[in-house]
Amino acid sequence: MTLSNSFNARQTLQVGDKTYTYFSLPEAEKNGLAGISKLPFSMKVLLENLLRFEDGRTVTKADIEAVAAWVDNRGKAEKEIAYRPARVLMQDFTGVPAVVDLAAMREAMTSLGGDPRKINPLVPVDLVIDHSVIVDEFGTPKAFDRNVELEYERNGERYRFLKWGKSAFENFSVVPPGTGICHQVNLEFLSQTVWTRKDPATGVEIAYPDTLVGTDSHTTMVNGLAVLGWGVGGIEAEAAMLGQPVSMLIPEVIGFKLTGKLREGMTATDLVLTVTQMLRKKGVVGKFVEFFGPGLNDMTVADRATIGNMAPEYGATCGFFPIDNRAIDYLRTTSRTDERIALVEAYAKAQGMWRTAETADPVFSDMLELDLDNVVPSLAGPKRPQDRVTLDVAKEEFATAMDKEFRKAGEAHKRVKVEGANFDIGHGDVVIAAITSCTNTSNPSVMIGAGLLARNAVAKGLKSKPWVKTSLAPGSQIVEEYFRKADLQKDLDALGFNLVGFGCTTCIGNSGPLPENVSKAINDNDLVAVSVLSGNRNFEGRVNPDVRANYLASPPLVVAYALAGSMNIDISKDPLGVGSDGQPVYLKDIWPSSVEIQEFIERTITSELFKSRYADVFTGDENWKAVTVEEGLNFKWDMGSTYVQNPPYFEGMTKEPKPIQDIANARILGLFLDSITTDHISPAGNIRANSPAGTYLLEHQVSVADFNQYGTRRGNHEIMMRGTFANIRIKNQMVHDNAGQVVEGGYTIHQPSGERMFIYDAAMRYQQEGVPLIVLAGKEYGTGSSRDWAAKGTNLLGVRAVIAESFERIHRSNLVGMGVAPFVFEGDTSWQSLGLKGDETITIHGLAEGLMPRKRMEMEITSTDGRVQKVPLVCRIDTLDELEYFRHGGILQYVLRQLAA
């Protein structure tokens, strides 16, 4: 790539005794990019990226000028740019299929006559194994060891495969299991805020902003450390690591002004739930959010990271915080080198990327404001992270949900005996209380707060209710260490919050089974059981199949609800229990003060702690060292493996793509309403024995006890395509019971036979019949985590197009990346307004000829009585790069053909 320097931005920066090359925004402003000093900080990062990669082809002078013009047009450019992040972050759920695809690409490259060694990450890739530990054992000192033992038993094949990848691919590192959640490892260790690399042509060291994309939507957490990053699907991440730019439209940036200070007793979780609700209401899908204002002056990076983490929940691409003294403090505390810290400060000041209390506010597309003094104790639930409920009305709101959400009006006092136990349970009882997830377990203030609340509760003689499954899954080993130093773990243990593992657990559905007698009581009596977790996701069916209402809360409130045991108690004023002195104990009696929390933080969290814990981060424990692997350029596939298989994406692939065809006489696989999440679409959670995936495993001599989770089997397309659209709570509006109610679960009606069957079985039958498929949906289709299998599974089922009222950003992009066409209705049109029932045939004209980004097309609907409707659609292939990917059948095929040529 031959680089240009149209605005004379390439300059040198002296820091100590080192000289760096960098691309100076102030110099570019002098040389034709007037006004760029007023850009939001996040936009300055994008602009620097374009200046550095200007080559006249993927990045042109006009692209750079379009970003510079942002100040005047407030992001209304509708201009496509090619963005190249510095690195890629993966977790193992999404990382395994990405490495599987790379291994498959090596074989396909050989078949096309190319060099398989070309298939290698071209930018640094870090994969952190954090999504596989399950809370099987809990509430005992042996919980951690037993869960680790089970993790390695279940995931031996996957871990051997990842160890092969670590040795086979260049630029690819693996952080072993038991280290922590990828986002916390990223925040505490991997991120540098300013990145450096040696120019291979000149040997000169170049300094530039640390940026990344990640295969987990909560990659945004690192925005709290002024690192621009967001979640993409695995297919986009694979393209990025293979040297392809991330194609994106120049974003709007919503400024979020923070003023004031949090009041005594308020937590970062209360704040982030408030921010999430406000931004969801505002509508920021596909936009950047940037935080500014005097409220940042005293806000820690940990609190900023908590807010950045939940960008997917408020719908934004990212929630960015600029570099300032707080960022420098964090880099110092987490033991980054003195040289790096000096570079970050010098670079930020030289670039106009340094924020102080006196910094002028940037220009934004739009703004909103929050006085931190107005934040109150909050939860979110029972189904969505944006549905904030203030603590003082949580009991009343749950009662309303019992009526409206769960249709259980009048059953508030129903309780049933639990077999073999000396307690009963009822609607609203908290059966899971989990301190879990990257959102909060990265934040010392709420974690220490939970430990102190536990200490105070134990001192009063309180205990967790016996029906509550309690767990503590910290985001990194740092937390274990400061709990030990603070002598708080013993108090958490006394309430059942024993360490169960390091990694994502309950928040991603790895909550493990409830005790059999509790599960039986819930299911036999159709109880609305509750989980309270310190996570970021509470979508229906996500946390545990036995639990229907899920509430997000701060770690201290998780402990409080374990003590109370029910959502039918107003814990803001009702007693949590009776103390050892016979007196009622209230939340206010055991809630720690912010001064006390800060004293513990200052006493226990030091740079030496981070330095020692991360000194040997890639080595792993004895379990990891014992994983054996056969090295080699190509992976030796085991055709008997139920975890890792060679996917069929490249079968029959030719050197040139075949012409795109219109979609003719397609059948409808599913009719869905609003807010269908990637959790609904993508295989996640438990594999049921009577499901298509369960049948497959049983046919392959895998016992039900060894099914493991869908997430751990993402490297096997046979299982994953069987689990697509198979969520137990998904509702295909085509399928009704005898009473006319919509049936829950992954079913459809095959046409024209009218037979009800699993969606997978119907899709395979349609494939045998040579019938293409489409899916119809409502608003915000694909909300939630960046799950590549939501798009891969859709493709493998034979779906040619998804037609919705609107899409979530990542999933729309992923569909295109897998060769599935996304369309949106115009205006207020919906499948309901068109009167569709699911037995119609659909033809879409305009794909075969003259396909362009956002092209207006026509859908032809033929009803069973022969009536024909013609409906306009907009094709949401948004950019020319996306059009190329679609023309090749997907992004991987495009990259493979480019490398083979």
TrEMBL record:
<dbReference type="InterPro" id="IPR001030">
    <property type="entry name" value="Acoase/IPM_deHydtase_lsu_aba"/>
</dbReference>
<keyword id="KW-0816">Tricarboxylic acid cycle</keyword>
<comment type="similarity">
    <text>Belongs to the aconitase/IPM isomerase family.</text>
</comment>
<dbReference type="Pfam" id="PF00694">
    <property type="entry name" value="Aconitase_C"/>
</dbReference>
<protein>
    <recommendedName>
        <fullName>Aconitate hydratase</fullName>
        <ecNumber>4.2.1.3</ecNumber>
    </recommendedName>
</protein>
<dbReference type="InterPro" id="IPR015928">
    <property type="entry name" value="Aconitase/3IPM_dehydase_swvl"/>
</dbReference>
<dbReference type="GO" id="GO:0003994">
    <property type="term" value="F:aconitate hydratase activity"/>
</dbReference>
<dbReference type="InterPro" id="IPR036008">
    <property type="entry name" value="Aconitase_4Fe-4S_dom"/>
</dbReference>
<dbReference type="GO" id="GO:0047456">
    <property type="term" value="F:2-methylisocitrate dehydratase activity"/>
</dbReference>
<dbReference type="GO" id="GO:0046872">
    <property type="term" value="F:metal ion binding"/>
</dbReference>
<comment type="subunit">
    <text>Monomer.</text>
</comment>
<keyword id="KW-0479">Metal-binding</keyword>
<comment type="pathway">
    <text>Carbohydrate metabolism; tricarboxylic acid cycle; isocitrate from oxaloacetate: step 2/2.</text>
</comment>
<feature type="domain" description="Aconitase A/isopropylmalate dehydratase small subunit swivel">
    <location>
        <begin position="696"/>
        <end position="825"/>
    </location>
</feature>
<feature type="domain" description="Aconitase/3-isopropylmalate dehydratase large subunit alpha/beta/alpha">
    <location>
        <begin position="77"/>
        <end position="565"/>
    </location>
</feature>
<dbReference type="GO" id="GO:0003723">
    <property type="term" value="F:RNA binding"/>
</dbReference>
<keyword id="KW-0411">Iron-sulfur</keyword>
<dbReference type="InterPro" id="IPR015931">
    <property type="entry name" value="Acnase/IPM_dHydase_lsu_aba_1/3"/>
</dbReference>
<dbReference type="GO" id="GO:0051539">
    <property type="term" value="F:4 iron, 4 sulfur cluster binding"/>
</dbReference>
<dbReference type="InterPro" id="IPR018136">
    <property type="entry name" value="Aconitase_4Fe-4S_BS"/>
</dbReference>
<dbReference type="InterPro" id="IPR006249">
    <property type="entry name" value="Aconitase/IRP2"/>
</dbReference>
<dbReference type="Pfam" id="PF00330">
    <property type="entry name" value="Aconitase"/>
</dbReference>
<comment type="function">
    <text>Catalyzes the isomerization of citrate to isocitrate via cis-aconitate.</text>
</comment>
<keyword id="KW-0694">RNA-binding</keyword>
<keyword id="KW-0456">Lyase</keyword>
<dbReference type="InterPro" id="IPR044137">
    <property type="entry name" value="AcnA_IRP_Swivel"/>
</dbReference>
<dbReference type="GO" id="GO:0006099">
    <property type="term" value="P:tricarboxylic acid cycle"/>
</dbReference>
<keyword id="KW-0004">4Fe-4S</keyword>
<dbReference type="InterPro" id="IPR000573">
    <property type="entry name" value="AconitaseA/IPMdHydase_ssu_swvl"/>
</dbReference>
<comment type="pathway">
    <text>Organic acid metabolism; propanoate degradation.</text>
</comment>
<keyword id="KW-0408">Iron</keyword>
<comment type="function">
    <text>Involved in the catabolism of short chain fatty acids (SCFA) via the tricarboxylic acid (TCA)(acetyl degradation route) and probably the 2-methylcitrate cycle I (propionate degradation route). Catalyzes the reversible isomerization of citrate to isocitrate via cis-aconitate. Could catalyze the hydration of 2-methyl-cis-aconitate to yield (2R,3S)-2-methylisocitrate. The apo form of AcnA functions as a RNA-binding regulatory protein.</text>
</comment>
